[in-house]
Amino acid sequence: MTVSQAIGLCPSLTLWEPDPVYYDARFSSLLLALGNVSPVVEPAKLGRAFVGVDGLEGLYGSPREHIDVIKRAIAEYAKPGMERLFSARLGWARGKFAAWVAATRAKLNKAVIVADNTRIEFLASQPIAVLQVDPDTHKRLWQLGIKTLSDLRRLPEVAVVSQFGKEGRRMWALAAGEGIDPVTAMEKPDPIVVEFHFPNPVADRAMLTHALERLIERALRHRRRIGWRVLEMTVRAQLEAGTSWNSRITLKDPTADRHHIAALCKSRIEQAPPTGAVESLALEFTAFARGTNELQLFARDATSAARAGQQQALRTAVHEIRTRFQHTGLYHIVEIQPRSRIPERRYALIDYEP
Amino acid sequence: MNHNQLQPLNLPRSVNVTLDSRGYPVMVTDAPLHSPAVQLRTPVSEDERDKEEQYERCTSVEAVIETWRVDDEWWREPISRRYVEVVLEGGRHVVLYEDLLTGNWFIQMA
Q: I need a surface site. Which of A126, A140, A197, B110 has the fewest CB within 10 A?
């Protein structure tokens, strides 16, 4: 339904503009909250995440208790007073596919638990629509009379592979309950710490701010930071009297923009300055969100912005490799005669220039 | 090597093929496919070649998907090939062809 159709049907309709940056930030917070339940958290797409609970039975107990812990983590992640706006469907099963299907069958704020001995039976009863395949494949499956996963599972694997190729193999394995796809922990860089030792203790705020700006630049240039935006950071200082000062800053919108980070640090120092002269100053980036750049001027959404950032990082990396080795050794595949009956004439490699 | 040149992908590799009475492949010897790009870029040492030879194996053909014939380019370097697209044991899709000028068989990705 288009927006104009919706307004036609409901003139009092209130329209909300999408806020992709806010969605990204909330999802990052949710992932952080789930990270307190298990170290193995995999974001699948915006709003969908998998939590690996293998080996956590001793800590949390039964699957029902796992679910309760996750529910509590979700409740903590929601801002106070807004809990009812943050609802989730939860599914527990062995393998991501079965867990996701279980979650889609759950009611709001409820969970569906699929025990291992009932997993194959549970999957067999599901409609073919639970397979995430392209619409053409769905259409072909329907045309072949395959309407449930059990219909697919009853066919010989070789026949499905012959019809659908690699995707057919994956579909058949999922339908047969053979494809136990484990949760892969999201890649999270270790904290980045940069320090500055003053030759003489410094109390002047302008000098501290200046030193902090240099630290921010150094930390942002760190190779582990490439591809990530900063979500949380801590500024620490060792003071002359042997005491210390620290300030933890959580960014509302993850960023890799040094001016933005510097402005936050500066305002924090002005609000609650160190209580003595500073001997050494340290900056630590402690949490990150995916993406490398701010929203580009013409980026449609956060994903486009992140893609633009990745492209920039790629260009830099390619430039560095070429400077060092004369050529990059990176190629991309180009179509030459994609419909040729001679397979080696269809595609070729050409040097990659991002 | 000129790095701005196009390099063909999916170059065919020589294999031995056993045929049934109708001339369709039933067995392929040395089925593992090595990426032609890797072959182009990475010189293979004698040791590695020996190691690769240890992995040579016979793979049976599970299904024949399609056959076609190409006769072309008679005016320069003639091409005369009989192609057979097959599914190998384990489900891998490959294309086999017989060079009708030499009688040799080759394998490449479908």
A: A197
Instruction: Pick the most confident of A189-193, A327-331, B24-28.
Output: B24-28
Task: Report how far apart, in Å, the C-alpha atoms of A304 and of each of A2, A48, A240, A311 are.
Answer: 23, 19, 47, 10
Residues of A in contact with B83 (CB under 8 A): 341
A window 122-161, beta carbon within 8 A of B: 157-158, 161
Look at B11 and A344 and tell me if their CB atoms are within 8 Å.
yes
Torsion of CA A312, A316, A318, A324, to 10 degrees: 180
ipTM score for this prediction: 0.73
CB contact under 8 A, B91 and A158: yes
Q: Smallest CA–CA separation between B109 and chain A, in Å?
A: 8
pLDDT digits (tens, 9 = 90+) for A125-134: 999 889 888 8
Instruction: Kindly give the interhelix angle for A205-221 and A258-271, rounded to the nearest 10 degrees.
Output: 150
Q: What is the mean pLDDT of residues A167-178?
A: 87
User: In this complex, is the C-beta atom of A108 within 8 Å of any C-beta atom belonging to chain B?
Assistant: no
Tokens of B39: 């072959």
Measured between alpha carbons, how far is A334 from A350 in angstroms, rounded to an integer?
7
Of A67-76, A174-183, B61-70, which has the strongest mean pLDDT?
Answer: B61-70
Residues of A in contact with B107 (CB under 8 A): none
pTM summary value: 0.46
Measured between alpha carbons, how far is A330 from A311 in angstroms, rounded to an integer? Answer: 14
